[in-house]
Amino acid sequence: MDALSKPLAILAPRYGRGFMHIFLRLLLIACLVLPYGLYAQNKPVQLGKTASDCIGALMINDTVVGPVYSPPGYGNKLEIYGYELGDPFFIQREHNTVWYKFRAPYDAVFTFDLIPEVKEDDFDFMLFLYDGPNFCKDVAEGRKIPVRTNISRKNIYVDGRTGLAEDAVEEYVPSGPGSSYSRALRVRKGDLLYLLVDNPFRENKGHSVYLRWRRTSEKEVPREVEEPEKPYHSPMRKLRVNVIDKESKDLIAANIQVEGLPDSVQSSFPAVSEVMMDVVSYRTYQINVVRKGYLLAFETFIPKNDSLYELVIPIKKMALGDRINLTNIKFDSDKTDILEKSKPALEQLSNFMRENPNVHIEIQGHVNGESRRNKRKYRKLSAARAKAIYSELIDRGIDKSRLTFQGYGNSKMIFPNPVNNRQAEANRRVEAEVRSL
Known about the structure:
This protein is of the alpha+beta class. It has four domains: about 5-40; about 45-225, no CATH class; about 235-315, Immunoglobulin-like, CATH 2.60.40; about 320-435, CATH 3.30.1330.60. The chain has six helices and 24 strands. The longest helix has 23 residues, at about 15-40. It is globular, with a radius of gyration of 29 Å. The strands form five sheets. Strands 1, 3, 5, 8, 10, 11 and 13 form a seven-stranded mixed beta sheet that branches.
């Protein structure tokens, strides 16, 4: 009699054979479940909000991190937004983002795997090479180009995985169908890399990151992937901007300001009707036009693959009741904090007020209300946002006697029943109405 049967034989007369059968069944279940409990993967850890910002990037000192849940949202600062679908270098905007950072332990060919817990989850990444203390600021202001990206549609046939691989060809993979992996990266010992991982949908089951460093040496037979990384040069396009009178269609001189150009390039052109310059494809630019007696005009655009990108901006003579839709002044979600990228638009509004010293405006806040009733919270938020712009203009030297502000809540939505994000964004706006000339 074995060690297990002996105690069961003793217990059976007392409790009956039914007890022994039940005990054996429970023991069998325990034997099946216990190993699974010992070896099952841990539940993903929820990362904190600070990890969603470049400045709060999580340091990886190992070769594996995860499984983890990305922090909900984009963190304390929306650092990447305003890019067009199809841009090979940037996601359109941050959704649910986590930043990682790590150092190359030696000269190596760097690859990694970004593995979702379930293959249906969609993850994109952008990989940057750190180059100094202004790195995060440069990223937020659009002056930093990633060294690798993959924004392709998820591929369930590779279990939703993405990353860098030595047999991959493309360095940058834009949105849509495409390779799940981008080309491996040659790194030097001590290089600091920043990896942004973005999940467009909050309902995900988490992810893990596996870093791999294949040491390189002079004795190795050169491989294509080990050729020194060539500096990336963004494709340049010619941009021509013409300013015309909206009614007569004639060319008209005005002050033209181009936002999005490098600091070293001329971006301000006073009293001209035409400007020609070089710009980079797939970058976001804004043209602001100011002329005395005319409404402030601006246009945001992204030049693509045309060798010459032409932009005609009509400006309208000012009249009482005219409104300037300040679409490029953005706020944090449900907050009154003006985003950093809105500062150029605020400066152009200030320039408009200086160029027209007799103009008085009312700054009007509007929200995209979820109900037909204009709730107090809607009125309060819209008024607070209008006041934030009012205060900014005063700080920039505009006399407060020329300014008023008012919050209208959701009472003047452009689309009373928005059916998509574009219509909701149009409702969520700030306008400046001309009250006197």
